[in-house]
Specification:
379 residues; 19-stranded mixed beta sheet; two-stranded parallel ribbon; 23 strands
């Protein structure tokens, strides 16, 4: 049972909530009395009106906790306020300079900080040692590292057992010791500075850098299996990408040479340029998404079972006569095996998306498009 309460002028006293509630949201609440929140609650969102949260307010049954502070006033938590049962915490608009060592429980696995103001220099002392997932989403005026630059750090500021790290809006020079060696998943969406090879942890398996456009030799990072570089606008040549990749997003690559993409890749996002041969796409790709000007016949391997194509510089599909459209369908469908799922974004109209599934060697099921829906016999 989920319950959301928005109170501004009444105290919350014991017995006000039913014992069956498991998820509770308290917005703009006045002082909450001890034992007011029942022990059945495992998920708690609280936006307290008071500036101090005392021990005993949050029951030991809570496993997931969200605290909404205020950008204008500071809220403090006493040591022991958060019980050891809590495994996930999300702090929003919370002034981290009020945190003291021991405020965050040792049981914590996942921590999310949003619109945090200024990160304290002793952040590494405040984070629980067993923390495995950490996300920092600063606000517009937030400063990640106010007095310490990342280039002068001699040890990492993150827990040694951290496996997943997400840092939004981060764009600072990195030192080789900035990341813990335990890190497996790294997301730095806004990072776009030259990157030294020894900065990335040796065991990293997933890397997402949406804005990264710098030249870099990825080949030595053999542990990477998922690589997302949607704005990377460099050439891709053979033996420059990690050899064991499974997922690759290089939507903006300037040019992809034959055999540049490892044969291990199964999920691929790229752009098709005139003159690309089928050697650009590895033979084992099963999920493919790309942009093109026209349907690239002979470019897509038969292994693809999930296809998404964006065709640019084309008229709206609803303006194309049915006979002509059927001819275009035939070009697409004859390239694939029965069971293939296809999405085509044809033009920019309101009903420009075509969604279909090939049923056998002659019939496809059209799931969208205003005048061509239903079963279509394409040969």
């Amino acid at each position: 049972m989920t319950l959301a309460i928005n109170l501004t002028d009444e105290d919350l006293t014991p017995g006000v909530f039913p014992p069956s509630v498991t998820s509770l949201e308290l917005h703009n609440c006045c002082p909450v009395h001890l034992t007011c929140i029942p022990n059945s609650v495992t998920k708690l969102f609280i936006a307290p009106d008071s500036k101090v949260i005392n021990p005993g307010i949050i029951p030991s049954s809570v496993k997931s906790l969200t605290l909404l502070g205020s950008s204008e006033s500071k809220m403090m938590m006493m040591t022991g306020t958060i019980p050891q049962s809590v495994r996930r915490i999300k702090l929003i608009d919370y002034h981290l300079d009020t945190l003291i060592k021991g405020t965050l429980p040792d049981s914590l696995d996942k921590l999310i900080i949003e619109r945090h103001g200024v990160l304290p220099d002793n952040l590494h002392e405040l984070l629980p040692t067993r923390l495995t997932s950490f996300r920092i989403s600063p606000g517009r005026d937030s400063i990640l590292f106010p007095t310490t630059t990342t280039t002068t750090m001699t040890t990492t500021m993150f827990p040694c057992k951290l496996t997943k790290l997400v840092i939004d809006q981060f764009d600072d020079v990195l030192h080789p010791t900035f990341f813990p060696k335990s890190l497996l998943h790294l997301d730095m969406a806004r990072f776009n500075l030259p990157l030294d090879e020894d900065v990335l942890p040796p065991g990293l398996t997933t890397l997402r850098m949406n804005d990264f456009k710098q030249p870099f030799d990825w080949h030595t990072h053999t542990s990477l299996v998922d690589l997302y570089l949607p704005r990377f606008d460099q050439e891709l040549k053979p033996d420059t990408l990690p050899p064991n990749l499974i997922t690759l997003n290089v939507r903006s690559a300037l040019l992809i040479h034959d055999h540049a993409i490892p044969v291990s890749v199964k999920n691929l996002v790229c752009s098709y340029l005139a003159g690309y041969s089928i050697k650009v796409i590895p033979p084992n790709v099963t999920k493919l998404e790309f942009e093109c000007i026209d349907l690239p016949i002979g470019f897509i391997p038969s292994s693809v079972a999930d296809l998404s194509i964006s065709i640019t510089n084309k008229p709206n599909i609803n303006s194309i006569p049915t006979n002509e459209l059927k001819t275009q369908w035939w070009k697409v469908f004859t390239m694939f095996q029965p069971g293939t799922f296809i999405i085509i974004n044809w033009g920019n109209g309101e009903h420009s998306n075509i969604i279909c599934r090939i049923l056998d060697t002659s019939i496809a099921l059209i799931l969208s498009s205003s005048h061509n829906g239903g079963l279509l016999k394409y040969r």
